[in-house]
Amino acid sequence: MAVFGKRPKHEDVRERPVDPDELRRSVDEGMLIARSAIVIAVANRIILSALQQHESFDARVVAEAAREELRRFAAEQREDAERMREIRAVAQNARGRSRHQHDYKRGDDLKLRTREATYTELAERLEASSEDPSFVDAIVIGARQRAWDDIGSTVVGRLGWAAGPADDYEVGLEDRLQELAADIDALRPGHPPASD
């Protein structure tokens, strides 16, 4: 309540701590998104390796690719955290109303600190995951399955006729089987060639 026309002093959001539950939730969601993106990136590497370099699947090579992607994603998160620090520094002196969604002001400090903390912790978890054999193995397995599914669906799509027999497959099947048996018989050594 204002006394004698004075406005009450509002709490400065710059002094409020980042909510640990919100931070944990954001980092967990970030890990799920990053893991999915990394599986896709590694699956693409598997496909390109198989199709362009004609290389067979090698779990060790793919595991190293997964670790590289994890470290690359961690580096991106560190860059995002640094960008948030820079935005916060500018926002500290910005006054007035925001003109658009990226026009941050002093009152956005808690939101920006939360994002910075999320990016920082996410980078740490991704980096740690690159050294976790079970996490890397799960990415390798997921990427291999995704690559197989992608290639398999492409092949079946291009060879649509191979996906199933034609509707009239049963018509004349017995005759075709007898012709096939006769052709196989004709290929046996010592069998006289058929006359046309």
Give a written overview of the molecule.
The chain has helices spanning 20-52, 59-91, 109-129, 133-158, 173-187. It has 196 residues and is mainly alpha-helical. The protein starts with 19 loop residues before the first helix and ends in a 9-residue tail after the last helix. 17% of the residues are buried.
How many beta-strand segments?
0
Query: Helical stretch count?
Result: 5
| Inertia-based shape | elongated
Mean pLDDT, all residues: 83
Largest sheet: none
What is the radius of gyration?
31 Å
Q: Which stretches are low in confidence, meaning pLDDT under 50 for 5 or more residues running? A: none
Label this structure with key terms.
196 residues; mainly alpha; 5 helices
Question: Mind sketching the topology for me?
Answer:
Layout: H1 20-52, H2 59-91, H3 109-129, H4 133-158, H5 173-187
Summarize the entry for a quick read.
It is built from 5 helices and no strands.
